[in-house]
Every structure is written in C-alpha cells, then in structure tokens.
Amino acid sequence: MNKVILIGNLTRDPELTETSGGVKICRFAIAVNRNYTGADGEKKTDFFNCVAWRGLGETVARFTKKGTKVCVSGSIELRNYEDSQGVKRTGVDIVAQDVEFLTPRQGGDDFGYDAPAQTGGGSSRGAKPQLQPFDDDSDIPF
Question: Could you tell me if 93 and 53 are in contact, meaning their C-beta atoms sit under 8 angstroms apart?
Fold first, then answer.
C-alpha cells in the first residue's frame, strides 16, 4: 500500500498549469515539521513537492497561497529524469488525492465567500435563530 498523510504549510504560491491534453495540474510544496528537535535544539523540517490533478488542483490553486496550512493525503511517486548536465536523478512527488485546508480564510467564512446578510438587523456571523414557544401537550393521549 502506498499511502501518505502530511500536514504542513505551503512554501510558495501554488502553480496551476495545463497539460497538452488540457488536464489541469497544480504543483505546490509544503514544509512539514518533525516531532523532535536536533542536537542543536532546532526543529527539523522536511519539504515535499506535491501535485494535484484536475478539479482538486484548481481548488488548491484558487484557495491557497504561501503559508496556508493544509493536510495532504495521497501517494508517493518516484520519477526518474536527466538534468541539464546529463546526470540521472530521481524526484519524489506526493500525488494528492485529498487536500484539506486548515487555515481559516480571512473575511467571510472558511470557504472563501461572504455569508449572506440577514434581514432585520443584527450580525450575520454567529447569529442564532430565535426559537418560538410551542405547546403540543394537548394532543398527548395519556
């Protein structure tokens, strides 16, 4: 089984591109802190390149930016390539199957749009509907 779950912050703004076949692909990187500190007392951080395809990629590109905290679940993919000097290299990508946004959006709600205004005054954020008393004891048969 090839499954990975990572929580970290985007290290740069996501890059949304399109393949020659018209499929959207979003590339982004996240920094993930390790659970321990090194001998020097500093926390160690790992950096992972991530790829999200199609609709998920468009969503990541639309709602995240550098510094956004995300949870990425997916699989690890190794790719072999040759660099500009002709040296064979291996790259590691996390192919995202799900990305959960953990940083709340500023202004509006967590999904990036403002809540509709309520009529009759009052704040639209956190307002609870008023309950009306209801007496239905007269219909109880006992």
Answer: no
